[in-house]
Design brief:
The protein is mainly α. The protein has one domain: Tetracycline Repressor, domain 2 (Orthogonal Bundle), CATH 1.10.357. The protein is about 75% helix and about 0% strand. The protein is built from 13 helices and no strands. Helix 2 packs across helix 3 and helix 5 runs antiparallel to helix 6. It is elongated, with a radius of gyration of 22 Å. The relative contact order is 0.09.
């Protein structure tokens, strides 16, 4: 039931073209992306938008409601961007995958002001929507990419695809979390790119990979060298 309510919100129509509402959203987005949730005041947003606090509250009953609207707007933009890249016809699969990963890294970097530890503490309902969106909307699109990669012969077909998605989703869910990243001084974008590098390219150098494969095949490094 909760998931259904979340999707009802995420699939709701974009805000109307009311110019006053638009100015409020524009000002709020600039403040929230730069500062996060708690440091921003409705007074500052109203002033930047050129409206009174009373006008702001007529459109948005609370700061959290306004913050939520900005977060959902950013998430919709990310989803639309991924859809555009997935459906693009002018790129082969590798080019498409690289473009999607680059796009996601950039967009996650932009969200660093939104997805902070204090957001989890002070706007937990909004953070939960972010997690749900990421898990049940973005990951579904990544599964589509895996299927396309397997069909084109780029991804291995001896690995269970659903399990790969589970592993990837678990890593992203646990690591792409403000509480996890704080000790490492990594932005969301930096962390995402590091995860992708490790998952796609691995952690071994060519030399290390050769040694590992030799050992896993039961061949000692000494014997392997003498055979070259």
């Amino acid at each position: 039931m909760k998931t259904q309510r979340v999707f009802k919100v995420l699939n709701s129509p974009a805000p109307s073209d009311d110019p006053t509402r638009g100015r409020i959203l524009e000002a709020a987005r600039e403040h929230f992306l730069r500062l996060g949730f708690s440091p921003v005041t409705t007074e500052a947003i109203a002033s930047a938008a050129g409206v009174s606090k009373a006008t702001l509250y007529r459109h948005f009953p609370s700061k959290e409601r306004l913050f939520r609207e900005i977060v959902l707007e950013v998430l919709r933009e990310i989803e639309a961007g991924i859809d555009t890249l997935i459906n693009s016809r002018g790129r082969n699969f590798i080019e498409k995958l690289a473009a999607i990963l680059s796009f996601m890294g950039i967009e996650l970097s932009k969200m660093s002001g939104l997805a902070t530890l204090e957001m989890q503490r002070n706007a937990p309902a909004v953070w939960k929507e972010v997690e749900t969106f990421r898990r049940e909307r973005i990951f579904a699109k990544l599964k589509r990419i895996l299927e396309e990669g397997r069909a084109s012969g780029v991804f291995r077909d001896d690995l269970n695809q659903d399990f790969l998605i589970l592993v990837y989703a678990t890593i992203i869910q646990e690591v792409m979390n403000p509480a996890t990243l704080v000790p490492f001084s990594l932005s969301f974008g930096e962390a995402f790119r590091m995860i992708i590098t490790m998952m796609v390219e691995g952690i071994l150098t060519e030399k290390g990979r050769a040694r590992f494969l030799s050992r896993s095949a039961g061949i000692s490094p000494k014997k392997s060298r003498s055979q070259r």
